[in-house]
Design brief:
The complex is a heterodimer. Chain A is an alpha/beta fold. Chain A is built from 19 helices and 18 strands. Chain A has a domain of 222 residues: P-loop containing nucleotide triphosphate hydrolases (Rossmann fold). The chains are: A alpha/beta, B mainly alpha. The structure holds adenosine-5'-triphosphate and magnesium ion.
Chain lengths: 535, 320
C-alpha cells in the first residue's frame, strides 16, 4: 500500500472501496496506529483536529482511541473476546475513559447501545458470550462498542457483511444519523449498494493504490477506471441461474472429474438428508428457555441445492449445526442417507461423518493456524487414501479443482487472502468426497469479485462431484443464483418453501413478499437498473 | 423446574467425575494388591526376617503362625475382598516394620509433602505468568533470552538444580538455613527447586499461546477502544493463554508429588519421601502400597479441581 491521501470532514462520509487485498483495511488501521508490528507506516502528515497523530506517544494515543475515534474492526465474528460477556466488551470503552459513574449506569448504557443497533432482548444478550449470539447480532455488538462514547470520527470496516437487508438498513440509518449530527464517517466496504447509500465521497483502491477518487455521484455514474467498472458489474443480482459472474476464467478441473454424472436439475431421485420437526432451545443467563429453532422440517435430495434465507437471528446457523449433528436437537430428528443420524451416538456417526462437510463464513477460525494448507487438506482426505504419494497427489488434485496453485501447499492460513482461504476451506470440504455440504454464509465476507468466483466454483463442483448443498445466505441474489429450492425462515420457523421460481416469481406469504420488495437498488439514479439484491 | 435442570446437569457431571475418580483409585488398589501377592519371596519370611533381623530360613511352624496372623493362608479372592473392604473403611493394613497402621504413618508425614507440592505449583504459575506477560510478543533480546532460560529449566533435572541452589544460597551465601525443617523460610529453596522445572514447561506453553492470542482481532478491538498494553495483556490475552497451562497442571501435580520426594531427600526435609525411601529399602510393602493409593486419590482430586478451574476460566464449556 502506498501513496494514499485523503481528508475526512465533520458531517461527511468518505468510503474506501476495493477488493480484498487492496489495502483498505491496512489504511484504516494505520489511522488509529494499529497496523500491526510487521507493518511500517510512513505518513507525511496525519492530523486529527489539528493534533499531529504521528507524534503521539502511547498514552496520548490511548486517549484518542475509543473516545475521539471509534473503530469497527473487520471480521465481526472474531472481534469480540470469546471468553467475556458481550456487554463487558461494549462497556469497556466507557469504563476505560471513565465515562460512567456507577456499575448500574454502565449496565444501562450498554443495554441502550445494544438496543440502538437493533439487537432484540438487549439485556439478555449483554450477559451472553459471543458464541451465543448469531453472526449478525455479534456484528451489531461490535458496532455498538465503537459507538459507545459517540466519537467524533467513526471508522467502520465492512460493518454490515453479516446483516440481512432489514437490519442493514437500520444500521445504515444509524450511521447516517451520526453523520448528520456532525460526526465524520470513514466507511470501508466492498458492498457498493451500502456505499452508494451514505457516502459523499468515494475512493477506489486497487492493489494498494488509489485508482479513482471523487464524489459519490461521479464515481457511480461515470466510473473512469476499468477496475471500478468491474466492481460495479460483479455485484450479485437476480440473474438467471447458471450464468457465470466472475470475470476470471472458471476454475475448471484439468483432469476428468472424479465422479462425473449428467443430471437434469428437475429430477432429484433420492432424499439424502431429511429433518423432521427439529426444535432447539437455549437457556439464557436468566434461566429462561428460548426457542431458536421451532419445528423445522425439510428434505434435501441428491444433487440438489436447498437455499436457506432469513433475517439475522432467525435460527439458520442453529439449524445447520443440528443438521450436521454438532448439537443435539431437543425434539425431532435428522435422517442422513436414509438412516438415523442425530439419534446415534457420536461414535456410531463417525464412520459417516466424512459424507457430510461444512463451509463457514469465516474459514480462518476453523483452521489450525499452525497447519500448512497441504496439512489441512490432507487431514480430511478419505481414510482409504493410504500411501504418502497418493495423498500428495490427491491434495494437489484438490487444489487444482478449486483453482489454487500447488505453490500454496506450504503456506499457513494467515498468509492467504480471504478468497484463497475460502477456496482452501472448499478443498477441505470436498476432500472426503462428501454427499452433502452445508454452507453457512460461505461468501458473505468476500468482496464481490471473489464472491462471484467462489459461487461459480461451488456450482461447477456440484455438477462434477454429484453433491448436494444446504446453502445458507442472507443475500437473495446469491440464493437465487445457486438454489434449486428455497426455504424462507423467520424466528425459528419455516415461513415458506418452494422451488426457486415459486419463491422469487410467485411468493405466497407476506413475509417473503416483503423480503423481495425490500431488495434495494443503487441509491443513485444512473445505475439503478443493476438491481442490487441483498436480504 | 428450569433451575432444577441446571442443577441436575451439574450434579450429573459431579457424579460422573466421582465414578471415574473411584475407578482410578480402585485400579490402583488392585494393582498394589497384585504386586503384594505376586512379589518374589514369601511374605511371611520377609516379616519374620524383619522382626528378627537375621536372614535365615524360618521354620514351617513360625511361617504358619505369621501366615495365619496376616491371613496369607486364605484364598486370594477372600484376601482381595478383605483388602478392598479395608480400604473402604480407611484401613490400609499394618506396616511390617513398625507394626502400626499404614494410614497413621502416612498421615503423619504427608502434610509437608503436600504443602511443598502446592507451593511449587503456585510458584511455577507466578513465575511463568509474570515473565510471559511482561516479555511475550516483543521482538527483543529479553524475549529470546527468556525463551532460552525456559527451555533450559524445563530440561534440567530438578535434583541437580536443588543441589546447586542449596550450595549457592545456603552454604555459600547463607541466606537461608541448610536444614530448614518445616519453617516457612525453610520452604523457600525446596519450593523454588521444585517449581523451576515446571515454570519452564508452563512458561513455554503459556507464552506460545500468548503470542498467538496477541494477534487476534478481538485484541486489536480492545486496543482500538483505548486499552493500554498492560490492560490488554492481563484482561484479555492472559485468560486465553492460561487455558493450555491449566490443562497441563493436572499432569504437573503428579509430577510435582514424585518430584517432591526427591527434593525432600536433597534438603533432608520431613515428608513422605523419607518414609517411602525407608519402606522401599526394607520391603515394607503395605507402606509403599498405601503411599501409591493415597497418591492416586490425591491425583484424582486435584484433577477434578483443575477441571473446575478450567470451566471457570472458559465459560464456553458446558457441564456435560
Ligand atoms: N449457544 C447458544 N446459546 C444461547 N443462544 C443461542 C446459542 N446459539 C444461538 N443462540 C440464539 O439463537 C438465535 C438464532 O441464532 P442463529 O445463529 O441460528 O441465527 P442465524 O439465523 O444464523 O442469524 P445470522 O444471520 O445473524 O447469522 C439467536 O437469537 C441466538 O442468540
Ligand atoms: Mg448465522
Amino acid at each position: 500500500m502506498r501513496g494514499v491521501s485523503f481528508s475526512l470532514q465533520a458531517g461527511r462520509c468518505l468510503a474506501i472501496v476495493g477488493g480484498s487485498g487492496s489495502g483498505k483495511s491496512v489504511t484504516s488501521r494505520a489511522i488509529v496506529g494499529l497496523a500491526g508490528r510487521r507493518a511500517h507506516v510512513h505518513a507525511r502528515q496525519l492530523t486529527f483536529a489539528g493534533t499531529d497523530l504521528t507524534a503521539l506517544d502511547d498514552r496520548s494515543w490511548r486517549r484518542v482511541r475509543g473516545k475521539e475515534i471509534g473503530f469497527v474492526l473487520q471480521d465481526a465474528l472474531v472481534a469480540l473476546d470469546p471468553l467475556r460477556p458481550v456487554g463487558k466488551e461494549i462497556g469497556e470503552a466507557l469504563r476505560l475513559h471513565r465515562a460512567v459513574a456507577s456499575s448500574e449506569e454502565l449496565e444501562r448504557r450498554v443495554v441502550a447501545l445494544l438496543e440502538l443497533v437493533g439487537v432484540p432482548e438487549a439485556a439478555v444478550k449483554a450477559r451472553q458470550l459471543p458464541h451465543q449470539l448469531s453472526g449478525g447480532q455479534r456484528q451489531r455488538a461490535v458496532i455498538a462498542a465503537a459507538l459507545a462514547l459517540d466519537p467524533r470520527i467513526l471508522i467502520a470496516d465492512e460493518p454490515t457483511t453479516a446483516l440481512d437487508v432489514t437490519v442493514q438498513a437500520q444500521v445504515l440509518g444509524l450511521l447516517e444519523e451520526t453523520k448528520l449530527r456532525g460526526k465524520a464517517l470513514l466507511l470501508i466496504s466492498h458492498d457498493l449498494a451500502v456505499v452508494s447509500r451514505i457516502a459523499d465521497e468515494v475512493l477506489v483502491m486497487h492493489e494498494g493504490k488509489v485508482v479513482e477518487h471523487g464524489s459519490a455521484d461521479q464515481v457511480f455514474q461515470d466510473p473512469q477506471h476499468t477496475y471500478t467498472r468491474q466492481l460495479l458489474d460483479a455485484v450479485p443480482s437476480a440473474r438467471p441461474r447458471g450464468s457465470r459472474r466472475s470475470l476470471l476464467p472458471a476454475a475448471r478441473p484439468a483432469r476428468p472429474p472424479l465422479r462425473s454424472q449428467e443430471q437434469s436439475p428437475s429430477t432429484f431421485p433420492s432424499v439424502v438428508l431429511s429433518a423432521a420437526h427439529l426444535v432447539k432451545r437455549f437457556k439464557g443467563p436468566d434461566g429462561v428457555l428460548r426457542t431458536a429453532v421451532d419445528g423445522i422440517s425439510f428434505e434435501l435430495r441428491s444433487g440438489e441445492t436447498l437455499g436457506v434465507v432469513g433475517e439475522s437471528g432467525s435460527g439458520k446457523s442453529t439449524m445447520a449445526r443440528l443438521a450436521l449433528a454438532l448439537d443435539p436437537p431437543d425434539e425431532g430428528a435428522v435422517l442422513f442417507q436414509g438412516r438415523a443420524w442425530t439419534t446415534l451416538t457420536e461414535r456410531d456417526r463417525r464412520a459417516r461423518r466424512r459424507a457430510i462437510s461444512v463451509i463457514y463464513q469465516d474459514p480462518l477460525s476453523s483452521f489450525d493456524p499452525r497447519w500448512s494448507v497441504g496439512h489441512i487438506i490432507s487431514d480430511s482426505l478419505a481414510s482409504d487414501v493410504e500411501s504418502r504419494d497418493e495423498r500428495y497427489e490427491r491434495v494437489v488434485e484438490l487444489l487444482d479443482l478449486v483453482g489454487l496453485s500447488p505453490a500454496l501447499l506450504d503456506r499457513r492460513p494467515l498468509e492467504l487472502s480471504g478468497g484463497q482461504r475460502q477456496r482452501v476451506a472448499i478443498a477441505r470440504a470436498i476432500a472426503p468426497r462428501p454427499a452433502v455440504i452445508v454452507c453457512d454464509e460461505p461468501v458473505s465476507a468476500l468482496d464481490v469479485l471473489i464472491q462471484a468466483q467462489v459461487l461459480d466454483l461451488l456450482t461447477d463442483l456440484k455438477a462434477h462431484l454429484n453433491m448436494s448443498y444446504v446453502f445458507i445466505s442472507h443475500d437473495l441474489g446469491v440464493i437465487r443464483q445457486l438454489s434449486d429450492r428455497v426455504m424462507v425462515m423467520r424466528q425459528g420457523r419455516v415461513v415458506e418453501t418452494g422451488t426457486r421460481d415459486e419463491i422469487f416469481l410467485n411468493p405466497r406469504t407476506d413475509y417473503t413478499q416483503r423480503l423481495l420488495a425490500a431488495v434495494p437498488s443503487l441509491a443513485r439514479g444512473g445505475v439503478a437498473n443493476r438491481s442490487f439484491s441483498r436480504v | 423446574m428450569r433451575v432444577n435442570s441446571a442443577a441436575h446437569v451439574r450434579i450429573g457431571w459431579l457424579a460422573g467425575r466421582f465414578v471415574s475418580a473411584a475407578t482410578v483409585v480402585w485400579l490402583a488398589a488392585t494393582f498394589t494388591f497384585l504386586v503384594q501377592c505376586l512379589m518374589p519371596g514369601d511374605r511371611a519370611q520377609i516379616i519374620i526376617n524383619m522382626a528378627s533381623g537375621n536372614v535365615g530360613e524360618a521354620s514351617p511352624a513360625e511361617l504358619a503362625a505369621v501366615n495365619a496372623k496376616y491371613g496369607f493362608d486364605q484364598p486370594l479372592v477372600l484376601q482381595y475382598g478383605k483388602y478392598i473392604w479395608g480400604i473402604l473403611h480407611g484401613d490400609l493394613g499394618l506396616s511390617y516394620q513398625q507394626h502400626r497402621p499404614v494410614l497413621d504413618i502416612i498421615a503423619e508425614q504427608i502434610g509437608p509433602t503436600i504443602i511443598l507440592a502446592v507451593a511449587a505449583l503456585i510458584a511455577a504459575w507466578v513465575i511463568a505468568v509474570l515473565t510471559t506477560v511482561l516479555v511475550a510478543g516483543q521482538d527483543n533480546m529479553w524475549s529470546t533470552l527468556l525463551s532460552g532460560i525456559q527451555v533450559f529449566l524445563a530440561t534440567v533435572p530438578p535434583y541437580w538444580l536443588a543441589t546447586i541452589l542449596l550450595v549457592v544460597f545456603a552454604v555459600q551465601l547463607r541466606i537461608v538455613p541448610v536444614i530448614g525443617g518445616n519453617s516457612p523460610i525453610g520452604l523457600v529453596l525446596p519450593t523454588i527447586a521444585l517449581a523451576l522445572e515446571l515454570s519452564g514447561f508452563l512458561g513455554q506453553i503459556v507464552r506460545s499461546e500468548f503470542t498467538r492470542v496477541l494477534e487476534q482481532p478481538f485484541v486489536i478491538s480492545a486496543r482500538a477502544r483505548g486499552m493500554g498494553e498492560l490492560g490488554v495483556r492481563f484482561r484479555h490475552v492472559l485468560r486465553h493463554a492460561a487455558l493450555p497451562g491449566i490443562t497441563l497442571s493436572g499432569w504437573a501435580i503428579g509430577k510435582l508429588l514424585s518430584g517432591a520426594i526427591l527434593i525432600e531427600a536433597v534438603f533432608a526435609r520431613q515428608g513422605l519421601g523419607g518414609v517411602l525411601v525407608a519402606a522401599t529399602s526394607s520391603r515394607d510393602v503395605p507402606v509403599v502400597s498405601g503411599a501409591i493409593l493415597i497418591s492416586a486419590g490425591l491425583f484424582t482430586v486435584t484433577n477434578m479441581l483443575v477441571d473446575l478451574t478450567y470451566r471457570f476460566v472458559d465459560p464456553r464449556i458446558k457441564m456435560t
